[in-house]
Structure formats: structure tokens, C-alpha cells
Amino acid sequence: MSNERQVLALKYRPKRFEDLIGQDTISTTLSLALDTNRLSHAYLLSGLRGSGKTSTARIMAKALVCQNAPTSKPCESCQSCQSANENRHLDIIEMDAASNRGIDDIKDLIEQTKYKPTSAKYKVFIIDEVHMLTTQAFNALLKTLEEPPDFVKFILATTDPLKLPATILSRTQHFRFKRISDKNIIHHLSHILNIENIKFEKQALEILTRAGQGSLRDTLTLLDQAIIYSKSIITINTVTDMLGMIDPAFMDNLFDIVIKKGDIRPIVQSLESYEVGQILDEISIYLKQKMLLNDIKFDLYIYDRFFKIIADSKQLLLMNSDSGFVLILTLSKMIEAVNLKTIDEIINEVNTIEVDSSVNPEVYNLREEIDNKNEAANQQLQEHLINSDIQVEQKTDNSELLFKKLIENIYNKSYDLGECFEKSFALSSYEDNILKINSTASGDCKTLLYKNFTHIKDFVVEVFGIDTEIEFEKIEKEKQKEMARIVQPSNSNEVGSMIEDIELHEENPSSCVASMSAMKKPNLSQVELNIDDVLNSKMTNTAIQLFQPKNPPKIKSKL
Length: 559
Ligand SMILES: [Zn+2]
Hints:
Strand order of the largest sheet: 2-3-4-1-5
Structural class: alpha/beta
Number of helices: 27
Number of domains: 4
Bound molecules: zinc ion
Strand content: 5-15%
């Protein structure tokens, strides 16, 4: 071996199951399977890059070729173990599916499964990044994967198990590798540095770990770099410099200025050499840490506002906004956010304000008036609730009042509708749950009332009670006195009345009484829109006739 320094990721690659970082469940399960000789013929290892899949595959392979195989503790001394550790065992065949993804590569591999192992008990095939195989290659592999010769074991590894066909997934034992926790990685890094006899600041390792994003291999590569960069001791400064990150001390200063509403220009200037996207990320990380540490400098509202501001700023960056402008805007908004009051604070403040009637009697009176009005409204509401429970008789006494209330409610929904209703309909009587209304509806008003009939029904139910039926009595405009009830079983379309339009069901042409009683418990669709009303309306039927190809459109339609 040369004297060249070996990279840490290789030098400290785990050689035994117990050396695997942060994957205890998987190493325990595989060890048990080996020790009890309950082996599957194919394993699938999936997880983030650098989470230990390939290392696990190699340890597993070694455990299968060792002279004591199968064993969870390969002896490390036999010929097989040694050549396995040096990646030159003839019975361990590694294939990278990223570069050998075609059907011919798989055919070669299948060919090899036919020959017995040269020295070991098993022949182990490790296929890395197996999701990269082509569909044909997968299909070619299926048969062998399902029923390989007894001495063949497959270990498939992938970062993207979702891309694998279900046929492959169902033929393998699947192990999902977790993201290695930062704590575990930091622990491992300090362990290595202690062995290597290199001094370090713990926070520097935290920064390296964060940059490695859960991949142990990436973090070890960064650590290699940091060792070279920092010469004798790994410090926060050297690491942040090396990674082009912002020094945590600078962040402290930044937020001091934001909270004290200070001048942000010097900060913007010193951040000029950084990518604004990266600054926003680091601010997020900094705030997240402060949140976890329960820093008293910020409260929950501030965190919430800051994270929203950061999210908005990222959105702006995505829209290719000027990055310098985004940074200034972000910091300015944060300063504003610190000084905003919460709704609770404002309510508390308002409550503590003493209204001095001598100073401003108008305000005082106004308050009193509002209180009285509220009380009156409550009383009215309660009376109404009681009334709707008690007998109808009581209602008939004040049917005029209720009708006024009905008109008022309709006005509240829509002024135009209210106006039409008031103009066209007059209360005739209200007895035995039957609300009789005199109608003079015509023209646009008629159309509007017709369109909103479902709502009007709802309002009637609301004011007069659920059992109420409505009867309309048509009053001809010319001879107002002459009442003509539209109950006639008419098939003449000449008697123009809104209610007729609605109620003229073909099966039941005589009914002009709105069927409120059938709606004792109206379901949702009935409340919102009585679909039958619409489907059986004269307007719809005429529309259908108009659009039926058999009947040429009538120009002189009654509509
Ligand atoms: Zn061995």
C-alpha cells in the first residue's frame, strides 16, 4: 500500500454489522437471519445516498462467503473474508446498474448465476442503483430473481424504490434505510477525529453535518476537505469559510439589529458575496435552532412571521426578482414583524382602556346603546326560538309581523329580490300552517321571483316554521279585486303565474301548493336547490323542446 492518505469514507467504511451507523434495526434483523440460517434469495436495500446501503450489502456478502458462513460475525481472518474486504472475492459480483442497465448486461449476469461459486458456499450478486435498469432488463431478471439456484443470493440497492416494478418488489425482502440522524453522524465524526488525533470545535462538526444533509459519505468527504483546509484544528470559522456559509456569530449580530430596529445596510453589504437563496436557508436553519433551544429573544409569533417572510422571499426569488432587493425586503419586513402587535395584545389593550364618560359622554352613551341593542336582539332571538316551538296560534296573531320579518330577510339576501317580493306579494292570511299570499307578480319581477323561489321557500320556513305551506292567489292587475286562485287543473299556458310555472308538474297538474309538508326535514340538496322544481319547470321544458332537432325552434316562444 502506498503512503497516500486514504479518504475517510473508505478508511472508516463499516466492516461489521455493529459498525453500521444509525441502522440498528436493519443490522439486527440481518444478523438474526444469518445466524438462524433463514435467508431469503433476494434482498432489496433502499434509502438515501450515504445511508449505508452499499456497506450493508458488502458486509452481508462477506457474511455469506466467510468460511463460517452463514454468520453475522464473519471471522475477518479467512481467505474469503480478506478478499471480500479488499473487494476482490470472485464469488461476490458487484454491478452498477447506472452504467450497466441494458438487457445484455443482465443476460451476462444471469449466465453467471448458472456456475457454482469458486470457493465460497454462496455466490452473491450486488446490483447497485437497481432502479436504473431498463424495463427489458427487469423482465429478463425476474425469472432468475424468483427462483435462483440455491447457492445464489441477490442484494439489490436503490435510492428510489418507487421506480422499481411491483414484480421486483414482490420477489425481494425490502429493508428501508432511515436518514442517519445528525446526532449519530456528529458522534461518528468526533469518533474518527479522535482516532485521527485531530482537534475540533463541536459546532464545526454540526455545520459539516448540516451541509452533508443526512448522507454519512458526503459528510465524511466534507470532513476530509475540512481537515486539509484547517491544518491543525477544525473550527467554526474554517468550516463556514470552506463551505461558503455564514458564520453563526454573524447571524446573532444580524438578528440583534433586526430586533433593535437597527440599520440593515452594513449587513446587506457584507452579505453581498453570498447567494440570497443560501442566506434565506441559513436564516431558516438559524431560527429553527433558536426555536429548539427556546431562545427568549424570539416568541412563537415572531418565528411564525419570520418563516412566512422567508417563504415569501423564496417565492420572489423563484420569480427571478432582483436578489439584492429580495434580501433588503426580507430584512425590512422582519424588522416590521418584530414590532407588530398580536391580536390578543390589541384586545387586551382595548379592554384596559377606561372610558371616562365625563370626558367623552358620546362614546360612553354609544357603548351603552350598543349593549342595550345587543340585549334586545338576544331577547328577540330567544322569543323567536320559543315561538317556533310553541303553537301556530300564536303565530297567526302576529302573522303581519312575521310577514314583515320575511320581507326583511329577503331584502337582506338581495335588495332587488326583496323589492320584487314586497311589490308583488301581499299577505292574505296565515292559518293552520297555510300562508296565503296574494300575487300580482309580472314581468322581470316574476322572473326574478321564479328564479329565487327555492330561497324564498327557505325564508318562509325560517320565519313561519317548517310545517308551513304556501298558497298563492293570483290577482289580475286590471281587476285587482277579483281573486282567481290558480288551483285550476289547467293545461292552458295562458294563466301566467310564477307559481304555476313552478308547480305545473305533468303528473300532478292541479297542485299549486308548495309542498312544504313533504319537506319536514329537508336534506341538503333540498335546502340548496329543489332540483325537481327546476327540471319540471315550463322554462326547462320549453328549452328542451327548442333544442330538440325534431322540433324546429319556435321564434314566438312564450318565454
Ligand atoms: Zn471469514
